[in-house]
Write a structure and sequence with these properties.
Elements (H helix, E strand, L loop, with lengths): L50 H12 L11 H4 L18 E2 L6 E2 L35 E2 L5 E2 L1 H10 L1 H5 L8 H10 L2 H11 L7 H12 L8 H6 L8 H12 L16 E3 L20 E3 L21 H11 L16 H4 L7 H9 L26
Antiparallel strand pairs: 1-2, 3-4, 5-6
Helix pairs in contact: 1-6, 1-7, 3-7, 9-12
């Protein structure tokens, strides 16, 4: 799968980097450089994975058999009720109980907070997409520090991570082999893997990663008011939202939040404050305090924000940008000169309310919210979330 690979319909017209709008205050008239183009909703090509593989991936996503203590599933921290994230500043994996903001550690406490805020799974199928709509799923950047490439590789990392799913039952070295041994002992999984991949030795960590990634690529949400507006439904956005769309471009937000996913998927230094729950400072990618630009889609349903989860609202983020404009670091471990030049040049001024209104038009709640009634392990789907 090289750069020409595209798992979506013709959507190259939705390119924010070319977005130029002018709006008249009376019955607004909107013009755009891409007016001649006819965008349609992003979607993953169903032919890229079989229904059997996707179904297996969904089952694995919900089954806590993948965790060392059998108490955490992928869905624990990426639940559809919370926009496929958990709405916590820092996630609580193994050793926790409850769902979303009600999740807490068991007493006596055995778990530790996950190091970073859980990003939504929604639209991760398109990670790495450039301003022209091109992307390569095999090199798609994952995690806040882009240390892993592709959903397939990413899907296995939480299983090996102490505070996420592994716990103390396994070591990092034997975690995957131990989980695979469990799956091989469950007749229903033997059948599901065989139906998805064929053969008698289908239960492998590689096939597990392919299945989970195949399911995650079906979790898209790209029929937002903004998308409908771009397709010609002029009533989908109001005057304030259109004003915010224009301001988003002119004040410089689109410098990093460009393209159909509103992200350049690059690493930037912002000086976001550390989360006080962590004993040590999070130095980001390679100790540089840089973190990957998140997509702005579906932020309305996926707070809190940034890698440390320290901002509860979009207004909080814009106030933060106002403070660092000109190079005023908000993290004592980041000096002013380290802050990305594009961020230092942002001038939000009195456009905050309009920009927030626009960002909220990028959300679409029409995504798969179904929860399986059971999983092959007979454990509770989603883990200890009740």
């Amino acid at each position: 799968m090289k750069n020409h690979t595209k798992l979506f319909s013709a959507f190259a017209s939705l390119i924010l980097s070319f977005l130029v709008f002018s709006c008249k205050t009376n019955d607004s008239e909107v013009t755009t450089l891409s007016e001649k183009l006819t965008p349609s909703s992003l979607r993953v090509d169903a032919a890229t994975a079989s229904p059997q593989t996707i179904a297996l991936g969904k089952t694995l996503f919900w089954d806590p058999i993948l965790s060392g203590n059998k108490d955490v599933a992928c869905a624990t921290c990426h639940h559809p009720a919370t926009g496929y994230t958990d709405r916590l500043d820092l996630s609580i994996g193994t050793g926790g109980v409850g769902l979303g903001v009600n999740r807490h550690f068991l007493n006596p406490r055995t778990g530790v907070f996950v190091k970073r805020n859980a990003q939504t799974i929604l639209n991760t199928a398109f990670n790495g997409m450039d301003a022209n709509g091109n992307y390569d799923p095999s090199t798609a950047p994952m995690f806040w520090d882009s240390r892993i490439k592709s959903l397939e590789t990413q899907s296995l990392e939480p299983i090996k991570t102490l505070e996420e799913m592994r716990g103390t039952k396994f070591t990092e070295t034997n975690a995957l082999d131990s989980v695979i041994a469990r799956l091989k002992n469950i007749p229903e999984y033997q059948l599901l893997f065989k139906n998805a991949f064929g053969g008698t030795q289908a239960i492998t960590s590689a096939n597990m990663s392919v299945a989970i990634a195949a399911f995650e690529r079906t979790l898209t949400a790209n029929n937002s008011p903004f998308d409908r507006f771009k397709r010609g439904e002029t009533s989908a956005m109001n005057a304030l939202e259109i004003q915010g769309m224009n301001a988003f471009q002119t004040v410089g937000c689109a410098g990093c939040h460009a393209g159909s996913m509103f992200s350049d998927y690059q690493l930037h230094v912002l000086s976001v404050p550390d989360n006080a729950k962590l004993a040590t400072s999070d130095a980001g990618a390679n100790g540089t305090y840089s973190f990957r630009t998140p997509s702005l889609r579906n932020l309305k349903v996926t707070p809190p924000y940034m890698h440390s989860g320290v901002f509860g609202t979009l207004d909080d983020i814009l106030r933060f940008y106002g403070r660092i404009a000109g190079g005023n670091s908000q993290n004592p471990n980041v000096n002013n000169r380290q802050i990305d030049g594009r961020i230092r040049n942002l001038r939000i001024q009195n456009n905050a309310a309009a920009i927030v209104a626009f960002i909220n038009t990028l959300s679409d709640d029409n995504f798969d919210k179904t929860v399986p009634a059971s999983v092959p392990s007979k454990l509770n789907p989603g883990g200890n979330i009740k």
